[in-house]
Amino acid sequence: MFVPRSHDGLELDFIDGIEIIQALARIDGSVGWIATISAGVSMVTTLLPPEIYDRIYKDGPDVIFAGSLKPGGKAEAMGNSWRLNGRFGFASGCQHADWMYCAFVVSKDGVPLVQPNGQTLVRGCFVPARDWQIKDTWHVAGLKATGSHDVVITDVVVPEADFFDPLDPQFHKPGPLYQEPFPLLLLMIPATFVGIATGAVDEIVRVANTGRQQFRAATPMRDSELFQAELGRIEADLNAARAYLQVQAASHWSHALNGTLKREPFLTQTAQTAAWLGASCVRVANDAFALGGSNAVYETSALQHRLRDLLVASQHLIAEKRQYVTSGKLLLDTRLEYSA
User: For the segment 144-177, what is each residue's pLDDT rounded down to a tens digit?
Assistant: First the structure.
């Protein structure tokens, strides 16, 4: 959905994409998560040199991606090529991927190369999925169907031209989706939170509308004022989460359309949004689970399924509570400039 029209993709507006991700996650958390990863990474591919991009999309726009944004491997210089070795975790969708994206620490003669600013040199690369091994590691509490196993690459040699700098890319496809894709990609992750939480509310409403009456309760669930009040509060929390996501997505997209979407401070805003939405959507799913009573504990219950998916999804790096630190510092600096 985010592949450029030049390569037969839909090149949807980001707002439409966010709505689609929510709708898919509302059906099933793992479905929404996989769609987020693959569609989001497709925007990152637009930073590749044109000849490599054309190679990836030579058979059409329906290319499935997996991989990891966190550097977890080494690229050893070999003339005009690089020998790749590494192990990467959380490679969602790897079992069905056509290409894997990962970032590598670049080294020569076994010594990591350093940039002028003193930081380790890191480069990104897309490698066909057939060159990777999948390690069966994804035995987890939630998002089980994402197949987010570890992936390993061993002594695979790729041309130097296949590498790009994810922090300072030299190529961009035309269009607002592709000038600074990382804030857009990462905002899709909290969109899955909202979708999963919406599915949890759908489920508790469905359960109540079956006429269920809990043990020793005076009335069926749907006729209980206590149940109605709790359900109304849960919906209010969900509406607040959905509204926050919509506001942030609209802001990101407006800046993208105007050419003013920069990596900072928009990554900071994305992380702040993800941290808040993660905690808020877990609360929604947990409260819906609690309303479901003892029947919600069974593996056949969608309420426990939704809660487990959200507990795992909200553990993502972008949604950790420590992400508030950067937004707090940014706010302090902004207020300081304003008062001056």
Answer: 999 999 999 999 999 998 999 988 888 889 999 9
Question: What Rg value do the Cα atoms of the chain yield, rounded?
Answer: 22
> Which residues, in sequence order, are CB contacts of 235 under 8 Å at separation 6+?
201
Over range 42-65, report the average pLDDT: 95
The C-alpha atoms of residue 170 and residue 50 are separated, in whole angstroms, by: 11
CA-CA distance, 284 to 236, in Å (whole number)?
A: 9
Which residues lie below 8 Å from residue 239, measured CB to CB, with a gap of 6+?
none
Contacts 24+ apart (CB under 8 A), 321-328: 321/275, 321/279, 323/271, 323/272, 323/274, 323/275, 324/272, 324/275, 326/268, 326/271, 326/272, 327/268, 327/269, 327/271, 327/272
- Nearest 10 degrees: Cα torsion 244, 248, 254, 255: 160
For the segment 280-287, the average pLDDT, to the nearest whole number, is 98
Whose CA is closest to 20, among 6, 5, 40? Answer: 40
Q: Among the residues of the chain, which ranges form H helices?
A: 14-27, 29-44, 50-56, 181-208, 225-258, 263-291, 302-313, 324-339
> What's the CA gap between 50 and 244, in Å, rounded?
37
Please tell me the distance from the alpha carbon of residue 243 to that of residue 100, in angstroms, as a whole number: 34
Q: How far apart are CA 2 and CA 17, in angstroms?
A: 8
Contact 112, 106 (CB under 8 A): yes
Q: What is the largest CA-CA distance in the chain?
A: 78
According to DSSP, the β-strands at 73-78 and 111-112 are unpaired
**Nearest CA among 281, 249, 269 for reference residue 331:** 269
